[in-house]
Amino acid sequence: PECLIIHLKRFAVDSTSGGTEKIDTFVDFPLDLDLDPFVVGPKATTRRTLYRLYAVVNHSGSLSFGHYTAYCKVGEEPNRQWYFFNDATVSAARESDVVSREAYLLFYERV
Q1: Mean pLDDT across the chain, nearest whole number?
Q2: What is the pLDDT of residues 16-26, one digit of tens each?
Q3: In this structure, what are the phi and psi dihedrals at residue 98, rounded to the nearest 5 degrees?
Q4: Cβ neighbours for 12, distance < 8 A, ≥ 6 positions apart
Q5: Tens digits of per-residue pLDDT, 74-100?
Q6: 68-71 contacts at long range (C-beta below 8 A, 24 or more positions apart)
Q7: Handedness of CA 67, 14, 24, 1 (dihedral sign)
Q8: Looking at the predicted structure, is the pLDDT value of residue 45 above 70?
Q9: Cα 92 from Cα 81, distance rounded (Å)
């Protein structure tokens, strides 16, 4: 696909109590994702399955008092700047800020 969305499982049902809990495990996801080694069947010779991260939705807090924020690359040029979106506030961000323990949804575009 042209856009690949990966959902990190951040909520789980406790098998003992039946309650829902937040999963805070750090996932070190790549900024560039090459899926070529995992493609089965005929491969197109002109198109690789290489993806580049362009947005991340984060969830912080708990189940009861959670908050969503996002990092996103803005613009059309190849060297787009990362920005941090938090309610009505938008600020420039560093690429090193994007991979965090709070990541929830990853958005990749085919390159």
Answers
A1: 91
A2: 888 888 888 99
A3: -70, -40
A4: 20, 21, 23
A5: 998 878 999 999 999 999 999 999 999
A6: 68/104, 69/102, 71/97, 71/98
A7: negative
A8: no
A9: 7
Q: Please give the structure tokens belonging to residue 14.
A: 């406790």
Contact 39, 49 (CB under 8 A): yes
Cβ–Cβ under 8 Å, residues 7 and 105:
yes
Pairing verdict, β 50-60 and 89-92:
unpaired
Separation CA 11–CA 66 (nearest Å): 12
Give the span between the Cα atoms of 54 and 103, in whole angstroms.
Answer: 13
**Bridge-partner residues for 70, per DSSP?**
57, 85
Q: Which of 86, 61, 51 is nearest to 72 (CA)?
A: 86
pTM of the model: 0.88
Q: Is residue 5 a contact partner of residue 107, using CB atoms and an 8 Å limit?
A: yes
Is pLDDT of 44 > 80?
no
Bridge partners (DSSP) listed for residue 42: none
